[in-house]
Amino acid sequence: MGKRGIRTGRSTTCALIAASTAFIGACSGGDDSADSASTAVNVTQATITTTAVVPTTTPTSQPETTVLTTDEHFAGFTECTGMPRPGYLCATVDVPVDRDDPSAGTIPIRVIGIPHTDQSAPEQTPFFATPGGPGAPGLENYAMWKLPNLIDDHHDVVVMDPRGTGASDAIDCPDLQNGTSSRAELQTAVAACGAQLGTMSDRYGSANRAMDVDDVRQKMGYDTIIYHGQSYASTDVQAYAARFADHLAAVILDSGQPINDIAGSTFGVDVAQGLLDVATAGCKIDVTCAASTPDPRATVEQLVTALGATPVTGTPGDGSGELTVDQASVAFILSNNDGASATVSAASELVRSALAFAGGDDQPLIDLAARYRAGEGAVDSDATQFSSGANLAGSCNDTLFPYDPSDSVDVRRQKLDAAVVAMPEDTFAPWTKEQWNEFWPFDICVNWPGPHHHEDVMPIGSSFPGIPALVMSGELEPIDAVSQRLLEVFPDGTYFTVPGVGHNTLSIGDCAAEFEAAFIDTLTVPDGSPCAAST
User: Measured between alpha carbons, how far is 138 from 144 in angstroms, rounded to an integer?
Assistant: First the structure.
């Protein structure tokens, strides 16, 4: 699931649980001067500018120095400040804002790289990574925290702040960035952000981000790349494959999702069952929960069904004020995205609270729900740390809807309402349609501007055989089963569920990173399974 970057009175909701989008123009690649694609993309030549940029994350600060490197790919780069370790180099690549309108100017894309350290040996295929969100800057990426030390002896490592994030002209829509307190406020803030971007409101989707990546690839002089997409960035990888497949040596997709259908993109149908899977997995990991609950899934299902009939109102023990616990409250608890240990804790506490509830004691459930009370949680007020505007500008352009983006807002709502009415009542069972909509707002993009120069991510049903792919997700990830469908897009890939991990498999320990590093070195899936010893 992607970052829940849009805060409302119900929750810190995401502008759609990340990696769900769909469309795009399939392509066969082509030469660098004019990569051929069915969408006839004409990539304007990018220019490179040396920068020394303070990163959006602030680990141990390193002094700024000019780096003398014999690696020709990094000509013009200088050492970055404030990086996790020495050796990170920074530059800016200016890319077209609108490739259909050169007069629209350029966006500076901040590029961060690490030249391979063994300059005496032939370099291997460079490793490119894109962060998720959308809205996160380049270093907000587990791939950049875990993999460089394992692969940078023979592989150059390159990451970017995608357009509209970090130091790449981060989109700052104040009302979105500072949080909203109701669905109505959210809709107003979405419309205001789209109006702020004007005719550029559809220039921040995965298609444009993929073309930016290829501008950087060309400018740095690489023929092929290994492309890692974390979370929503799996959409960027699919967009890149649709346009520049000939320049992909391999892909790694971590906690991603295919862009294939309205049910998944707009409504999150698969996530309903995925949350029950999380409850089951989390309880089994917790020894006490596992010993006391033979069927945690059924226990949570019974709780959700009961709350659908009669929500519970009460005052939590922390004195934070009366609240009502309904079905959506349970979804918010299970969608905890603060790491595997937090997910296990939330799932096991929910199961214990459900058992107490079944026995007539509401208080543990009320107390638990208070910790996930609507509207609470951090807001990323600094758009360079996480841009809520870029989150919407990406997902609202990439996602499939039951309406045409060129429809008026009124027509969009009519078609959306009709699609919801047409759904079977048990579509999100055990959640009702109404309560699922409270958790997963179906209409979050209804007020986003209509398209001006829209670029589809890729055509529905696109497949890219011949590209080695490593696809992984965690057993505590609500879209784990959905991630497996990425093999329909990359049929020569291999899928693994990593035990004991939630969203982003590199987030805990080193075993998943070591597995990925072995794949990067050989472009062959290693024997065995990642982190198998922990099962």
Answer: 8
List, for residues 41-96, the tens digit of each pLDDT value: 222 334 444 333 333 333 333 334 444 456 899 998 999 988 877 889 999 999 99
Dihedral sign from CA coordinates of 484, 421, 456, 255: negative
Q: What is the spatial distance between Cα 14 and Cα 48, in angstroms, rounded to a whole number?
A: 34
Confidence class for position 31, pLDDT limits 50, 70, 90 = very low
- Name which of 368, 360, 347, 362 is nearest 290 in CA terms: 347
Tokens of 340: 């595997």
Give the Cβ contact number of residue 534 at 10 Å: 12
395, 209 contact by CB (below 8 A): no
Q: Can you list the domains of the chain with their CATH numbers?
A: 1-31+116-535 (3.40.50.1820)
Residue of 527, 468, 37, 535 whose CA lies nearest to 240 = 37
Half-sphere exposure of 494 (CA within 13 A, CB side): 16
CA distance 274 to 257: 13
Lowest mean pLDDT among 7-21, 159-173, 431-445: 7-21
pTM above 0.70, yes or no: yes
DSSP state letter for 255 = S
In this predicted structure, the answer to whether residue 7 has a pLDDT above a threshold of 50 is no
Distance CA 365, CA 369 (A): 6
Structure tokens at 482: 């959905």
Query: Residue 162: CB partners within 8 Å, gap ≥ 6?
Result: 109, 130, 131, 134, 137, 138, 168, 209, 212, 236, 390
Query: What distance, in Å, lies between the first and last C-alpha atoms of the chain?
Result: 23
How far is residue 157's CA from residue 149's CA, in Å, rounded to a whole number?
Answer: 10
- Cα-based distances in Å from 96 to 102, 107, 331, 390, 457: 7, 6, 41, 17, 18
Residue showing tokens 């005052």: 315
Is-contact 253 470, C-beta < 8 A? Answer: yes
- Rounded to the nearest 10°, the torsion over CA 25, 31, 32, 34 is -60
CB crowding 40-62: b at 16 or more within 10 Å, else e: ebebeebebeebebebbbeeeeb
Scan for tokens 């961060």, then name that residue.
Answer: 112
